[in-house]
Design goal:
Keywords: Disulfide bond, Protease inhibitor, Signal. This is BPTI/Kunitz inhibitor domain-containing protein. GO terms for molecular function: serine-type endopeptidase inhibitor activity. The structure is a single chain. The protein is of the alpha+beta class. It has a single domain, classed as Pancreatic trypsin inhibitor Kunitz domain (Factor Xa Inhibitor, Irregular), CATH 4.10.410.10. Helix content is about 30%, strand content about 15%. Strands 1-2 form a two-stranded antiparallel sheet. The longest helix is centred in the first third of the chain and has 19 residues. The mean pLDDT is about 85.
Amino acid sequence: MNTMLATFILISCSVIILINSDRPAECELPSKTGPCRAMFPSFYFNSTTEQCHEFVYGGCDGNGNRFETKDECLRHCVNQTTRTD
């Protein structure tokens, strides 16, 4: 029984690693509003939920996980084989 569980966990982890290996590194970054006070509606990819979420970008000192539209975020960060829309 323990061997079966260990095998299942190993296979599951391998699949997750293979699926995520195709994703650009910037898609793993957290959203970053930055210190400036502008209010640009933007989208970031949440690698935990595998979805693009809206946030407010301040206009400076952000990172590569920032997109102007949800569609742009999805095209950049979601593997084509896992898209559901």
